[in-house]
Amino acid sequence: MLSPCRICQSENTETFSFGNTLLLRCNDCGIIFNNNFPDKITVENYYKYNYSIDKTKDINNPYILEEKRVKLLPEQYGLISKIISFKNHPARLLDIGCGFGFFIDEARRFGFDSYGVEPSVMALNYCHSIGLNVFDNIDKISTKFDIITLFHSLEHFIDPKETIDKIKNILTHDGFLFIRVPAFDCYWSKILKSKWVWFQPENHYFHYSLKSLQYILALSNLKIIEINYQKPSNKIIKSQYKVTTKIFEKTIQSKSKFRNFLQEKFEQMTGIEIFCIAKINN
């Protein structure tokens, strides 16, 4: 017997193979999700202790995190610029799934009162060590925010509807929610199947299309202001990656592994995401 849809509870679901992985599709709401789900405690422990953020293991090496931070600057400035066009500082900003806090660290330089949510103990400790305000769980937040961001984190939640409802409760009435998720319905995903760079069923539990993301947001009475496909790796970002790699290779006198170089290029080429801005439908 097939599992009912985890969003609309419809029993009109079907399994299909995506490469070597079995997925379920709801024929009523269009949601696609994994055939098997871990329990909540297993998921919590996984993200606390075992999940590898950007495959960064040695945070005691100052070069490793700094190189990553510098490489991401053009992308982050672009995101901050987009946010400012909707809500400028002073404003309270919350980034859910903030990792090592690179984005909220830059946002506070632009005048935002920045906070984060990050379950990884390793990343959380790093954030606290550089003075960032980061919680380990969204349930510990009681104040409201003008801007909430979910940048490649919604796909990691086993109950996205519940997560969106929690976010809505801490979003101001005129606040904005910014979402980025892998575009499962993009052409690269269709061509590469399970070889696609952002198909990671071991920790991506839902696989979003424009239609399914719109459906989930509508269920929580959120109004979409803007939604589109985009390549996050533009010419400026690719150039910054190249320059930063050369600088840090020279600084620490060690070469990056060729496999890492190929992985980076593969991600830049095939990574297509959905970018969405929403607010409470007052």
Which tags fit this structure?
seven-stranded mixed β-sheet, globular, 282 residues, single chain, 23% strand, alpha/beta
How would you summarize what this structure contains?
This protein is α/β, with parallel strands linked by helices and 282 residues long.
Task: Note down, in words, how this protein is organized.
Strands 6-5-4-7-8-11-10 form a seven-stranded mixed sheet, with helices on both faces. It has a four-stranded antiparallel sheet with strand order 1-2-3-9, with no helix packed on it. α2 (62-86) packs across α3 (102-109). β4 (92-96), α3 and β5 form a beta-alpha-beta unit. The longest helix is centred in the N-terminal third of the chain and has 25 residues, at 62-86. The mean pLDDT is 90. The protein is an alpha/beta fold and 282 residues long. It is globular and about 60 Å long. It contains nine helices and eleven strands.
Secondary-structure blueprint:
Layout: E1 13-18, E2 21-26, E3 32-34, H1 40-50, H2 62-86, E4 92-96, H3 102-109, E5 113-117, H4 121-129, E6 133-135, E7 145-151, H5 160-169, E8 171-182, H6 187-192, E9 206-207, H7 210-219, E10 222-230, H8 235-252, H9 258-270, E11 273-280
Parallel strand pairs: 4-5, 4-7, 5-6, 7-8
Antiparallel strand pairs: 1-2, 2-3, 3-9, 8-11, 10-11
Helix pairs in contact: 2-3, 2-8
